[in-house]
Amino acid sequence: MALSEGTPGERSRVTVPPGRKERCRFFIECGLMVSNNETNSPEDDFMIALSQISRPHLILLSILVGLIGFLPSSDGSDKLNVVLILADDLGWSDLGCYGADYHETPRLDSLAQSGIRFTQAYSASPVCTPTRASIMTGKHPARLHMTIWHEAAENPPQDRKLIPPVAVGNLPLEEYTLAEAFRDAGYESAHIGKWHLGDGNHYPEAHGFDWNIGGTHWGAPPTFFHPYRGPFHSEIRYVPRLEGGKPGEYLTDRLTDEALKFIERPREQPFFLYMSYHTVHTPIEAPEEDVEKFRKKLKPEFKHQNPTYAAMVASLDKNVGRILDKIGQLGMDGETAVLFASDNGGYINNYRKTGVVTTNAPLRSGKGSAYEGGIRIPLITRVPGVTPNGKVCTAPVSTIDFFPTLLTLANVRDGVDQIPDIDGVDLSSLFANPESSIKERALHFHYPHYYFFPKTTPVSAIRKGDWKLVEHFEGSRTELFHLSADPSEETDLSQSEPKKRVELLEELQEWRDHVNAQIPVINPDYSGG
User: Fold this and answer.
1) Is 148 helix (H, G, I), strand (E, B) or coil?
2) Average pLDDT estimate for 439-449
3) pLDDT tens per residue, range 214-229
4) Are 308 and 286 in contact (CB under 8 A)?
5) CA 149 – CA 215 distance, rounded (Å)
6) Residue ranges of the alpha helices (H) in 153-286?
7) pTM over 0.90
8) CB under 8 Å to 23, separation ≥6 — which residues?
9) Half-sphere exposure of 358 toward its Cβ, with a 13 Å CA cutoff?
10) Which stretches does DSSP call E strand in 291-354?
């Protein structure tokens, strides 16, 4: 709220926070209004009342209005719009604000300066589908038995030392999703981009979304260029509902076009946008002029070395900026919460002729691994009236926490506490004060499958405080790390700290029993080395 200079009795200039105009009625009910003109708007009455108040009282009143403006209304009429932006395979150190030296991400860096940047945020899994399930439900993938991507869920390999469990490939319809919670609170909701949570019977429309543009059971497009269809291994893939494009059109740009159309749609109710980009997942492709820009910029000392990937990251950044700009142009900044994250760590394999895709250094390993590089992710939040500007939060948090947190911030938590088996916790106190603390808890990770590179065998992990234990099911081997002293997980302390090793291993095993996690079994027919 802004007040102009003036003498007592002069009308002061007032800016009512967007979406909070109904709060002016508060002062009418308090008997401060002097006008009986029924045609006056709340703002008119507010102005008239202010003109009758002495300056000292006016200052006090301005403080009160500011405080009230950030409290949820009792009737829920001031629910925030929510924009959840999820990148695919974006590594923890891929953004400038997380230390990238080659990539250019000015818009996401700016978002971090206008909100909170989390430095110890985790995906619930080192691969995509399980993490996405955790976001939609607030439940751990191990509890859901959704521990690997859809296409591999029902066909575990039979030629390894261990046989991974058959997993759930479709997000069960009986699960109450984030979209359904927003729908029940009167929101219009859209899913745009990657879904990867089930077949046609389990698409976004079946889980509460009003709109679904591009969402299928596939985990990656065959190409990032129009018409977004073509051969992929033994099948033909495509990205649906993107008709009318033209040659050269880029998928990240086009999905953002669709998001902007949704944001600017005339509506009376608030909206929930799940902007789920395919980028920066393979195929590693970007417009040639953008790739050439990064080729010219490349230096041997840079941590990242892939020009095509750098161009993909830049495109992601530009398009996040387009969404933020549209929110600002429509005057929605004061009533729209934005959360940006990735679904797992960066992909560190070679990809065709582009070379090594990315590095998560100083974190160890990458996508598919339970080491930090596979599960630690960028997380940036901006919530009007809640998050301070440019702060950093070091508390360990997880994608399982998005569900209860977003519903609390949007003032639509009614009934959520009655949903059974929610594993996530409400982080809204951290959003308001990133230096505060939440109740101590352990974070758990369970990936009872093999991943091709880095070569990952079935694994579980637990982080509690600064300690982290990794349990490898092949050979019943464990590793113990102290992350504050060793964020790169270079020194295994399992022999020098046997009590801590046993304590964490027992707690991890108890947690697996509690959530009924599936465990791989010994392959009796295995004859390999």
Assistant:
1) coil
2) 97
3) 999 999 999 999 999 9
4) yes
5) 15
6) 178-184, 251-263
7) no
8) 16, 65, 68, 69, 73, 78
9) 33
10) 336-342, 350-351
Measure the CA–CA gap between 279 and 357, rounded to whole angstroms. 12
Whether the CB-CB separation of 277 and 193 falls below 8 Å is answered with yes
Distance between CA atoms of residues 319 and 118, nearest Å: 21
Q: End-to-end alpha-carbon separation of the chain, Å?
A: 70
Give CA separation, 488 vs 52, 58, 66, 344, 495, in Å: 63, 55, 44, 17, 18
> Rounded distance, CA 129 to CA 110, Å?
29
CA 180, 182, 184 angle in degrees (round to 5)? 70
Token couple for 520: 């791989």
For the chain, the residue count is 529
CA distances from 321 to 17, 329, 431 (A): 23, 12, 21
Any idea which residue has 């403006």 for tokens? Answer: 69
Assess contact for 431 and 452: CB atoms under 8 A: no
Compute the distance between CA of residue 278 and CA of residue 378 in angstroms, rounded to an integer. Answer: 16
Cα–Cα distance between 286 and 307 in angstroms, integer? 9
Q: Which position has the token pair 């669709």? A: 258
Q: Please report, as a single letter, which amino acid is at residue 218.
A: W
List CB contacts of 458: < 8 A, sequence separation 6 or more: 162, 164, 447, 448, 449, 450, 472, 473, 474, 520
User: Which amino acid type is present at position 479?
Assistant: E
The pLDDT tens digits of the residues spanning 340-354 come to 999 999 999 999 999
Query: Tokens 């940036």 label which residue?
Result: 380
Strands of 81-144, DSSP E: 81-87, 116-122
Query: Residues 142-170: pLDDT tens digits?
Result: 999 999 999 999 999 999 999 999 999 99
Query: For 113-126, what is the mean pLDDT?
Result: 98
The amino acid that residue 418 corresponds to is Q
HSE (side-chain half, CA atoms, 13 Å) at 125: 27
Q: How far apart are CA 103 and CA 297, in angstroms?
A: 10
Token reading at 210: 């009003």
CA dist 489 to 389, 393, 441, 492, 493, Å? 32, 21, 21, 7, 10
Mean per-residue pLDDT of the chain: 89
pLDDT exceeds 50 at position 10 = no
Is residue 367 predicted with pLDDT exceeding 60? yes
Among the listed residues 53, 122, 88, 45, the one whose alpha carbon sits nearest the alpha carbon of residue 446: 122
- Distances 435 to 26, 306, 513 between C-alpha atoms, Å: 33, 36, 33
Rounded distance, CA 309 to CA 279, Å?
Answer: 10
Q: Which two tokens stand for residue 2?
A: 């802004």
pLDDT at 66 over 70: no
Instruction: Give the helix ranges, DSSP H, for 199-287.
Output: 251-263
